[in-house]
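hey so i finally got around to running both of the ones u sent me last week. sorry it took forever, my laptop kept dying halfway thru and i had to restart like 3 times lol. anyway pasting them below in the order u listed, first the sequence line then the structure token line for each. didnt double check formatting much so if smth looks off just lmk and ill redo it

first one:
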Amino acid sequence: MGSLSQRVGVALGAIPVLLLLTFWDQTLPFKLTAFLGLLLALLEYLKMADRNGMKTLRVEAGLALFFILSPWLLRPWVAWDGHGTYMAGLALLSLSFLWSKRPLREMVTSVSVTFFGTAYFGGFGNYFLRLRDLPEGAWYLFWLYAATWAYDTGGYFAGHWWGRHRLAPLASPKKTLEGSLGGFLLVLACLFSLWKAVPLYTRVFTATDVFLLSALLSIFGQIGDLVESTIKRSLSAKDSGSLLPGHGGVFDRIDSLLFNAPVLFYYLLLFKH
């Protein structure tokens, strides 16, 4: 990726906009932005696959992603069952077998690669929208952002300064155990600081919750990052795209958030709501 100054510059420009959309009383602007981000990440993935000779189905993928996310995009105006539209979106891709003009020898690969990407971004991405629909959902999303960004920051600097032992050499040779520990410690410090500073968090979470969520969001955020690294390496790509200077593509920026969003959602659902 690019230089540290580029990364910081883009972050300083993008984070205030994201927070404004997140805390806006009207949820639709945030939801549409989240959908656009997921769609761009999906298209980045499909483009990486296309460059490796896997002719994907971009239009069908975009339509299927909308079907999958529509119950949460359009709430409170509709009350569709999310499971039904999820299956409808994937069924749309399955029907691509019938109308696709791909040669038969390419068809299974083409549809399967497209199917995986759509299920991946739709299946994980819908939890951004579901978190926002919770009471005080904007504050839960802020908690999610803070934990994920703290882990990225702590992991980056701890790995750069002290990294010696590789975490997952095949998936991401630069990731280290020292970086993972540094990321976790910064997440723990960040979430405890927010817990003390924001009355909502003090009311909802206990100190035990803060520690457990710090651990869970660190672990699953790292898994999301490693999964994306594996996808990129299998498709011979360094970054998913070049839309965000110094950061790569949208997929590069939301890889950890994709795994952390369902973790936080179900933690709240099972233990707090």
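and the second one:
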Amino acid sequence: MTRATNPSASPTIGIDLGGTNLRVALVSRDGDIVAEEQVPTPDTFEDLVAAMAENVRGLTPPDTVTAVGVGTAGMVDFEGTVHYAPNLPMLRRAPLGKSLRETLGVPIVVDNDANAAAWGEVCHGAARGCRHALLITLGTGVGGGIILDGGIYRGAHGFAAEVGHWQLDPDGPPCACGEPGHWEAAASGTALGELGRTRAAEGRAPNVLARADGQVDEITGYHVGDAAEAREEDGLAIIEEYAGFVALGFVGLANILDPEIIVVSGGLVALGDLLLEPIRAAFDHHLEGADYRPAVRVVAAELGSRAGVVGAAAFARELEIDG
């Protein structure tokens, strides 16, 4: 379990590996990005390792890199092997940590990207000072990071916090993974678009439909969000309905884990309180003993797209200290 300690004075390297882009950054002890490179994610494992190493070396003078942290989508074990990543086909039982260590000759830590984002928010963002926190990412899917007693909780094999694949309804719509009724199928940004299409097809979302030029099949979560931001009744109603699905997952996690704070990240957070207020209301309505327990704050992430790379660099600081 990664735990917060006093950070070292020197900047460290963080890498955020996504299905589209590879981001490598030199990050200060205060969580500020000093320098960074961003390139398209290579298609093969060998090219990926080479690109990571090349960009790390390009950000720092020779022989000055002391540790590197990597946050990547997928199921990552404690040795830094990525066992499965749906959007990164080159990462199937891929020894990413081992290969980077051999290439760069420095300590490497590899973890799930949502764990890295959660650690970034604890060290430098919305969850600073919290020892029990959840980070939930609402994007194409639903991701999560769990902070328990001041450290990242990774489970027995490193695969914990795949919260999007919690089955809430065995008769519900299929998740992208193929299983029915997963939380992700109702609470992701993709699901918001599906909800918008459903309501438009029922004749209940004329303004949302107009934003998609009258094409039901073209409606996405962005059209729903735009309608809500314009305070159009149908857009607001769809956001409120969607927020209820998000809150159901928050309630279950909070009842099990008892966090101080739930930090919400991902593109939908740009909606601000238009999204967060109905989530908070539904969360408080359904949480067990809500009137008899300290409030659990539900807040927007502070680091935005920087959370993963900043958190990965914070992982690297731990390696420097431990070494």
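quick thing i noticed on the 2nd:
The longest helix spans residues 233-257.
anyway thats it, ttyl
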